[in-house]
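forwarding from the other thread:

> can someone predict this with zinc ion?

sure thing
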Amino acid sequence: MNWLGDHEVSWLPGLDTGHSSRVVVTSNERSVAVTDSGAPCLFELDDALIRGLDPVLAGTLDGMTYYGVRARPIQSLTYEALRPALIQMDSRQFIPVSTAIQVLDFLEEHQYCGRCGQPTEASRSDRGLHCEPCRLTQYPRISPCVIVLITRGDDILLARAPRFVEGMYSTLAGFVEAGESAEHACHREIFEEVGVSIKQPIFQGSQSWPFKHSLMLGYRAEWKSGDIQIDGEEIVDAQWFSIDRLPKLPPKASISRGMIDAYVAERLS
Ligand SMILES: [Zn+2]
């Protein structure tokens, strides 16, 4: 399933093959410069260089190459926190901004070798950061995270985490642990978070999600047994919702919403 439309397949991460270039401007606090309409405020590459900024390559989309820069806030610009800024962007904006943020995070957090402590330098052959003294090359970190839509006929199980905006419910998610398959993580996370058992999870699709460097692996699974039991900390409420009486849902750009909408459409067809 293609959550972000046709742009997903035309995105060329790490490649500079566009006819022109734009720079995504972010602050040290991972805020994004935006226009009045909520779109990313994009500098032309030359303009960014003239300002003394140091853009890093994100990739090319539909003939436009995108860079990202992280700098002290520029007074004439308006900045918005990353999460609310991203979720209102369309896919053409979401992909380069999300990638720029993750590349900038990687460069900032791997300035020194994790093994010997010496400064790293950009690899000449790929997107890695290389340590010459001990020959270790590190790459942008990607953390797999399962996200599961649990179904029971016309009902779906949705939950609220404390950080969610008022009234919003979403599908359950959690990181895959070292040594664990994604499917195992689905069973474990669901049981830990809401106390129910599920049947075999079925893969639906994936989405890069820069909080902080997640690869969301979307699954659908039928409820098998058990009543909802929550811990009240990670999850503050969880309920079965009928597909014709759903609560406030995550934004359209999210894989969670994509899976919910797809299931509702299937049931109604
Ligand atoms: Zn080293």
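The chain is about 25% helix and 30% strand. thats all i got for now
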